[in-house]
Amino acid sequence: MRKPNVLVKLGTWRAIPKFFFVLGGFGVLIYVATLFNFYSLRSLHIPDTFCNNINQDRAGTEVRATIDTVIRKIQDEISTVGYTSANTSVPEFASRYSRFLVDILGLIESMEASLPSDQGTGEIRIVHPLAKPKERSDEPVDYFLIEEIRKYLKIKPNRLGKQNFMGANGTFTSIGHACFAMKKDLEEYMDYDVGEICNDDWKLAQRLMVHGCDPLPRRRCFSRAPQLYHKPFPINESIWKLPDDRNVRWGGYRCKNFTCLARNSTGKGFFKCADCFNLTSHEMPRWIKPIYIDPNKNLTTDFVIPEVLAIKPGEIRIGLDFSVGTGTFAARMREFNITIITATINLGAPFNEMIALRGFVPLYLTVNQRLPFFDNTLDLIHTTRFLDGWIDFILLDFVLYDWDRVLRPGGLLWVDSFFCMKEDLDDYLESFKMLRYKRHKWVVIPKLDKDNKEVFFSAVLEKPPRPFR
Ligand SMILES: *[C@@H]1O[C@H](CO)[C@@H](O)[C@H](O)[C@H]1NC(C)=O
Ligand SMILES: *[C@@H]1O[C@H](CO)[C@@H](O)[C@H](O)[C@H]1NC(C)=O
Ligand SMILES: *[C@@H]1O[C@H](CO)[C@@H](O)[C@H](O)[C@H]1NC(C)=O
Ligand SMILES: *[C@@H]1O[C@H](CO)[C@@H](O)[C@H](O)[C@H]1NC(C)=O
Ligand SMILES: *[C@@H]1O[C@H](CO)[C@@H](O)[C@H](O)[C@H]1NC(C)=O
Ligand SMILES: *[C@@H]1O[C@H](CO)[C@@H](O)[C@H](O)[C@H]1NC(C)=O
Ligand SMILES: *[C@@H]1O[C@H](CO)[C@@H](O)[C@H](O)[C@H]1NC(C)=O
Ligand SMILES: *[C@@H]1O[C@H](CO)[C@@H](O)[C@H](O)[C@H]1NC(C)=O
């Protein structure tokens, strides 16, 4: 490799600023090269641990990224010099200067090629810095064999090499980290022909989500729809009427129609909310008429909607129902001109389709996920039949803090018929007390059906203002 005589070639004072720029670039190079050596040496002397590998890989990636940046800058400079050389008063200098730059470029590229890496090809590559790390063999992308997953996971640098309107240099599509533990299932899920009809695999998708592969990757195939979709009933009819059976794909459910789901029969394939599809007799009175567990003692954990809304007259407008159900809470709240989004997954029955066909907004969301709402926005969160005595205490904490995040100051948390073992009650109540909310309602009563071993808990709590700067 030819060593350019820098000082001779840059004999004119006009070149000095550019000279300093290039010198600066060299400085950076030497610095990162040293850094890289340091990490390499360290990993030679210290037994190879996971940490060292990570450090070394990261250092290598950084070196590579920096070198790429230097290369790109020099290339830019070369094209600028070439462009202006036609107009410059000293064409001789300009051509000398660009030759010098080309030399430097050659040196740096050969240096990059000698970096220990799987892809040092030495050819001129202009790669967006954000796209670099994903090319390494130990990156998530390379963990999967299905091309569609790899394509989805790759960071997509913005075209034109500029930041997009969101201030990011690229788009970062993500999947839940548990996807890596469920590689086979995910690969099955992502095995399709682009542009074709997807497999009928919502169940596989839901299983992946429930087990933490959440979010799932997007797919580039057309999801299956019911064979004959009949337009939904108008809203004045749809709310309290069983929808058209043809509007649901029934594969994967034990019942094959809504009548079966509404019937009081066993073996419907789900147990929570077994009566929730019986709109007329089971759903109608909910949150309007309390059900007394022991009518002689007026014992109930049901609060009725007018009673709860009276706590904050006119203030409750939007909210979330995080429950297992068919949207009846949203239906009742609609009568009070309150918009409720109903979050549920399809546990053994087409809950989401049912909610949508009744005319409400279904949110297909697992408990694994942070709520997709911004801080301090919702007026109300209602929950029933979902968080119960099965839930881990730490998880409950995370869930409650997340709910607290999205509730606005003065918003209400309505815990509806939470049940658990008697001996666990105090621990669960601690979690709710930890929020330090104002207690408007707070009821604990024994659940009479299971040998008095379980208890019900209901509460309406108000998020306090937190006027901290
Ligand atoms: C040279 O300069 C003239 C005017 O200053 C400009 O119109 C022209 O585009 C320039 N050409 C190049 C190659 O920069
Ligand atoms: C995004 O690109 C711009 C210039 O293109 C750069 O200044 C910035 O550091 C980049 N941001 C990140 C996070 O890489
Ligand atoms: C629903 O509304 C439509 C018009 O908006 C009306 O024709 C129809 O009779 C209504 N149905 C019921 C059950 O009220
Ligand atoms: C509904 O499905 C059940 C079996 O799941 C079947 O016995 C019944 O005939 C069906 N009813 C209608 C109206 O299709
Ligand atoms: C709903 O339940 C009631 C009482 O259990 C029953 O009489 C009615 O037939 C059920 N509705 C449907 C659609 O099965
Ligand atoms: C429906 O079934 C539930 C439990 O499966 C039972 O408690 C209820 O009494 C039944 N209702 C009717 C009307 O049979
Ligand atoms: C139950 O409540 C109703 C109305 O709130 C009241 O009239 C009745 O006396 C109460 N019964 C008992 C046993 O407390
Ligand atoms: C809901 O809004 C409608 C139309 O604005 C109004 O007529 C009705 O009284 C409201 N209902 C309640 C319970 O506020």
Automatic annotation (TrEMBL):
User: Looking at the keywords, is Membrane present?
Assistant: yes
Transmembrane helix found in the keyword field: yes
Q: Which UniProt keywords apply?
A: Membrane, Transmembrane, Transmembrane helix
Q: SUPFAM superfamilies, from UniProt? A: S-adenosyl-L-methionine-dependent methyltransferases
Q: What sections of the protein cross the membrane?
A: 20-41
PANTHER family, alphabetized: S-ADENOSYL-L-METHIONINE-DEPENDENT METHYLTRANSFERASE SUPERFAMILY PROTEIN-RELATED, S-ADENOSYL-L-METHIONINE-DEPENDENT METHYLTRANSFERASES SUPERFAMILY PROTEIN
Protein name in the entry: S-adenosyl-L-methionine-dependent methyltransferase
Question: Which source organism does the UniProt entry give?
Answer: Eucalyptus globulus (Tasmanian blue gum)
